[in-house]
Amino acid sequence: MAGTDHSKTDLAASLPKGPVIILVEPQLAENVGSVARAMANFALSELRVVRGRAQADGEKARVFAAGAHHVIDAARHFDRVEDALADLTLVLATTARERGQAKPVDAPQAAAERVVAEATAGGRAGVMFGRERTGLENDEISLAARVVTFPVNPAYASLNLAQAVLLVGYEWFKAATGGAPAFEMPTKSPAATHEQISALFAHIEGELDDGGFFRAPDKRASMVRNIRNMIHRMEPSLQDVRTLHGMVAALSDGRPGPEGRGRTYLKPLKDVEE
Amino acid sequence: MAGTDHSKTDLAASLPKGPVIILVEPQLAENVGSVARAMANFALSELRVVRGRAQADGEKARVFAAGAHHVIDAARHFDRVEDALADLTLVLATTARERGQAKPVDAPQAAAERVVAEATAGGRAGVMFGRERTGLENDEISLAARVVTFPVNPAYASLNLAQAVLLVGYEWFKAATGGAPAFEMPTKSPAATHEQISALFAHIEGELDDGGFFRAPDKRASMVRNIRNMIHRMEPSLQDVRTLHGMVAALSDGRPGPEGRGRTYLKPLKDVEE
């Protein structure tokens, strides 16, 4: 999806240090590239590759990195998993299946909160991902303090490597930033005040009275309440209130009824009811 | 990542109805395939494609669907967005950027909770995704009740189509299933009782006393507390307690010290302290 703005400052500097992403024996350069892209989406930058058979910094990885070349360029390569983990204070191992190890298991959200807490306390966390087909070996998992697994449909649990990294990055970014949407509803117009909304009610209800909308007088009160509730649920801005006044006026204009009725709408409700 | 078990029943039947995924003018068959795969990962099955230029059910889509052919086969194709949305009671539009429309904005987690609530109340929700490069058009967004956007690094916000669907599917699955990890730490052995842990403390502390570990008598109490806390943080099972007894015995066995000391370890702490 579109929306990248390279003029915007990378958020990473203002966030707690993100987890190092450690790939153990990735087989395909495409996947290393896609992992780099997923990391960049969520402001992660430190990639470590252990015994990458893939040309992890080759052309194919770069194509799949889709612009996240800074991640590929800064990636560090190791022969031993232990060396790739050496400076980390919290290592999490991702696994798709229960692997019979007596290790606490976190869903990605809980793992992400743990990673943020570790960084806030001055430590450094890493999340380890295994081979595309077979995942991490048991001895590799035993190097980690905890296991992370993904809540997926058990009948179709084949998350690919970049998708697994994407979910970890996404949850980390949520935990690090508070998880608010990237933008809020634009508010070009101030919210309408109670008095302005009351005046709108008066306008609408007056025109409906004139048009014979409330045929059963004993139902009028509850129908009015329903209409008022509908408008309240809309949480109208001042501009919305003006638009609704205009719509009601346009609909009622020229209709048979008390002359000039359409012009009372700027008065607050209490004036009209008096 | 590995872990698919096709013998397991698809969870979908036991969950509230998942959101329909609506793709508007997807350009690449690969992306439709990857979307199908991401949907299957999270037990979503209903895909609708509006004016797909891609051969959305062709060979390429199937390769990228990685086995999620049931989603491709059941996909419905439409010429008009309105027709693809006709039976839905809640439509959410995904956008990467603020699009100037006065519509409430949800992050994926809040959107997912809304979709689950809608299904629980008997309605049916759908999430609409736009073209790979340009997203949804403003008139298409105006058909939706709400907007969904993704918390991403603003300097690198290019989530691809399948990744965006993956995040929506993931959050929906979390909301629909409670978000627990796919498995918990295996508990092959019952948790140790307080008495069993106290006996372990007695064994360890006795051997450490004999070995001259507590050189400063005034520090003994706080050192003992630290050791006990380390073991409590381990949350040891009964098997772990036995393993630790064995380790202490193996370490202290044959070491100079009061004869037979290593054999007291089955007694609870209070016996030893008397």
Automatic annotation (TrEMBL), chains A, B:
Gene Ontology BP annotations: methylation
Family note: Belongs to the class IV-like SAM-binding methyltransferase superfamily. RNA methyltransferase TrmH family.
Keywords, alphabetical: Cytoplasm, Methyltransferase, S-adenosyl-L-methionine, Transferase, tRNA processing
Name of protein: tRNA (cytidine/uridine-2'-O-)-methyltransferase TrmJ
Catalytic activity, reaction form: uridine(32) in tRNA + S-adenosyl-L-methionine = 2'-O-methyluridine(32) in tRNA + S-adenosyl-L-homocysteine + H(+); cytidine(32) in tRNA + S-adenosyl-L-methionine = 2'-O-methylcytidine(32) in tRNA + S-adenosyl-L-homocysteine + H(+)
EC number of this enzyme: 2.1.1.200
tRNA/rRNA methyltransferase SpoU type domain span: 20-170
Domain of life: Bacteria
Signal peptide: none
Compartment annotation: Cytoplasm
Basic and acidic residues bias: start-end ranges: 256-274
Quaternary organization: Homodimer.
Region (Disordered): 252-274
Described purpose of this protein according to its UniProt entry: Catalyzes the formation of 2'O-methylated cytidine (Cm32) or 2'O-methylated uridine (Um32) at position 32 in tRNA.
Group of enzyme by EC: transferase
GO molecular function annotations of the record: methyltransferase activity
Pfam family name, one: SpoU_methylase
Predominant place of localization: cytoplasm
